[in-house]
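Lay summary. Proteins are chains of building blocks that fold into shapes, and those shapes determine what they do. In this project we predict the shape from the chain. Here is one chain we studied, written as its sequence of building blocks.
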Amino acid sequence: MEVVTPHGPAEVTLDETGGPAFLLVLTHGSNGSVDAPDLLAVREAALGLGGAVARVTQPFRLAGRRAPGPPARQDEAWLEIIGVLRERFGGVPLVQGGRSNGARVACRTARAAGAVGVVALAFPLHPPGNPQKTRVDELRSAGAPVLVVNGARDPFGVPDPADAAHVTVLPGERHELNRDPAAAGRAAEPWLRKWALEKPVARPVRTGR
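And here is the predicted shape, written in a compact code that computers can read:
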């Protein structure tokens, strides 16, 4: 599914269910893809709870660029994508998230998007070696409860538990969260469960790109 934004087209990979309990929208890091193992683990957790999942390749990555560009441009494109998805899925609760730079986008736009929660994987609290340049305000101003899942050895830092609704720190993991990516799914599952409806879980209908 292609969505045209003011800053170029984005690509959305959808996993839909019949009558989803919620919609989870996930995106990648600045030099990553929507097939990152931790993103896929969270996707599986959401599908298992009867949610629909949309994985968004942002315009800068679809164009082959590594640098995401100014935050305002990213956020404007993201909100355009969210608008299209909300039209498709109606009034189900929206949870948005991503890893690294994608987690920052999800936090910055949560209020404007009307998200009920945010899943922030490997949130880059500060540039490596520069803790004074903190991005903690992006977490604090999300306007929705934020679940942070970070590695204990992440050179980008680990948010303080006071700066999010819940912070899970995975022992031995670095920024990539790739030693045991399933742990990210296990951390997200109880967080997502609160938006799952009390009804039989429909089998996912995988529609592809």
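What the prediction tells us: DSSP finds six helices and nine strands in the chain.
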